[in-house]
Amino acid sequence: MLKDFSVQALFMGVLTAxxxxxxxxxxxxxxxQAVGAxxxxxxxxxxxxxxxxxxxxxxxxxxxxxxxxxxxxxxGAALLASTGAAIEGGFNAAVGAFLICAVLIVIAGLFxxxxxxxxxxxxxxxxxxxxxxxxxxxxxxVKAIGFNPLLGLPIVLTWIVVGAFRRLWAVPAAxxxxxLVLTFGVEIPEGALASLGRxxxxxxxxxxxxxxxxxxxxxxxxxxxxxxxxQNIPGIAxxxxxxxxxxxxxxxxxxxxxxxxxxPFGGHAVNLAAITAxxxxxxxxxxxxxxxxxxALISGAGYVVLGLLxxxxxxxxxxxxxxxxxxxxxxxxxxxxSGSAMAAFQAPESREAAAIxxxxxxxGVSFGGISGAFWGLVAGGLMLALSRVVQAAKK
Length: 395
Hints:
This protein is 73% helix and 2% strand. It contains 19 helices and two strands. The protein has helices spanning 7-22, 25-34, 39-64, 74-82, 90-110, 112-119, 123-138, 140-147, 149-165, 170-185, 192-198, 213-241, 248-262, 275-281, 293-308, 310-317, 322-344, 351-363, 372-394, and strands spanning 70-72, 270-272. A two-stranded antiparallel sheet has the order 1-2. Helix 2 packs across helix 17 (322-344) and helix 8 packs antiparallel against helix 17. It is globular, with a radius of gyration of 20 Å.
């Protein structure tokens, strides 16, 4: 393995870990706290996810000799944020749902019919549900400017200007702007900096899972669907585009296993990366495709290191008004929102069904204690089925 190491892969691996962590950790923190996690539990979840996905990337890349990049489920975290309030049973029930989702991912990898069933969900509806989930967070940058233009505008303008030249660096640059705004524009309470020092010690919070119907239907099922449809399946596609031929089932099962490990500590889901996968699997990682797996190995090590710093990251973020870190999270999801919205409404024959899925999901309204994401998929599916029956009757 050492003969395959290269400085090029080292650089790309470090860059992948930084971009993957910096561009979406805010979404993860916001999502976990939205379903009832305390600051300490959210820090523990962030740490567990980062270490799990780092270890998973190292294991899979070393065994397969493929550049298998791993990430936390950013769309899944956005789904948690869109629930609007903690479900019945609080964060314990959410952790129970995380475990169920993880087991479903393992089963999808080992039991081919379930994997095929997920792949059979109409892509326009899956994308419409994701777009509806992301919409609320994408409003946050505008709300941050409305909250305080002096605090919100520097973050948004930095994202716009840097993104115009280098899209990859837009969100990390916005994160730097957030740090500067927090440092120079927000009054930091006395003694807060001392608490940051204490936060350097990793936070570990074990959460006893609670299993109930509300958690299963409102979190576990939508989280499983959005993770498989928006992360795992595209992750395989990215590898194939770069001329790799992985076996999807075992990869899914291993990510599900690491999700099981992270769930009791507050982590929601670990999965194949989609965006950062292109960084490790592309030519920038190395001219020789057989040596690119080192980029994924190094990114995994980077995630482990960043995970150990999750406590101080969470404590620092907690010093700012929540809307500011939500703004960074929203900016990180603009690309995902635009991509999913375009894919949802591209096909004319499924446009109305996609619109219903999107609107019901985006409404954020829960029926019977079950979140809008699930009902959006159900409503859109019924509309699509009815449309197909009518079209068949006309022939």
